[in-house]
Amino acid sequence: MRAPGGGAGSAALAAGLVLLYYAFSIGITFYNKWIMKSFGFPLFMTLLHLLVIFALSGLTRRCARRPARPLLPWAAYLRQVGPAALSTALDVGLSNWSFLYITVSLYTMTKSSAVLFILFFSLVFKLEEPRAALVLVVLLIAGGLFLFTYKATQFDMEGFAMVLGASFLGGIRWTLTQILLQKDELGLQNPIDTMFHLQPAMFLGLFPLFAAFEGLPLSASEKLFRFHEVDRLLGLLGKLALGGLLAFGLGFSEFLLVSKTSSLTLSISGIFKEVCTLLLATHLMGDRLSLLNWLGFVVCLLGLSLHVALKALSATGQKGARQPKESCSSPDLELLLLHHQEEEDPAGFPQR
């Protein structure tokens, strides 16, 4: 029997976890834009974030009560984890790079288009069954993005192309990650284990891009390698490391929210988070949005909401038709992956 006040206690816990998730998720978006105003090396920043996440996830694994944590051999690691890690690294790198050029609001809206690419690759890999309702999802999201960018006063084509490219890579990223997590023999269902295994391959995949575009300018920059004041250097490294802490916290908060509530709660929270992000962007960052832009945002949200609803109905229907031990298969996992498209925590774990 439920204890008196149990419902209120559960609601309070869920609300607290949602707020914690919002703090990390919205925080990392505005952090990326803020840090890019004073430090124009997004790929180096991303590499540093990967190191911080790897260190924190390794420390967490070491402190975990369970003595045996999965550790993949190199052959299986490169074959199974490598493709997902490479697409994740490029997705995150391009997303962070785009903050040099575009506003938070345009970034948030454009990243929502990743759902279109996730749907496409899910159909290619036969993770999604073709349905007529998906056509409406595509039309709503694509139409909303068009309205949002049409005659936008703060539109930048270079940054927009970067985010759109990142969204395309995001479709590959989350499809491969879904396949990765469905392989029970790898033992990577725990988010900490997933973070730990993804970061090294992500670092190696992103480093050549960093060396080609930022290596020489960064080596000649007085902000880092040619510094004059130790205090300023340590302050900068601290600011950069903060992003890694936010990314790790985001992954962990998402895991807590899903484990204590459900993936549906997380997906719905992600939709409302988009509204909060745009409202904050207009008030804190000075983003200018016309009535047509807001209309496009609403249309896009309708498409995302429809997709979440379809996933929820699919998950409910398949749970009822399967044995209990099989109830957390593809639909739940796809629902869990759904809202990862708009925020780029380098952890690369589809926990949220």
Automatic annotation (TrEMBL):
The keyword Flavoprotein does not apply. It is found in: Membrane. It holds the Pfam family TPT. One of its GO terms (cellular component) is membrane. Residues 16-306 form the Sugar phosphate transporter domain. InterPro entries: Sugar_P_trans_dom (IPR004853), TPT_transporter (IPR050186). The chain crosses the membrane at residues 12-32, 38-59, 99-125, 132-153, 159-176, 196-213, 233-252, 291-313. It is a multi-pass membrane protein. The keyword S-adenosyl-L-methionine does not apply. Keywords: Membrane, Transmembrane, Transmembrane helix. PANTHER family: SOLUTE CARRIER FAMILY 35. This is Sugar phosphate transporter domain-containing protein.
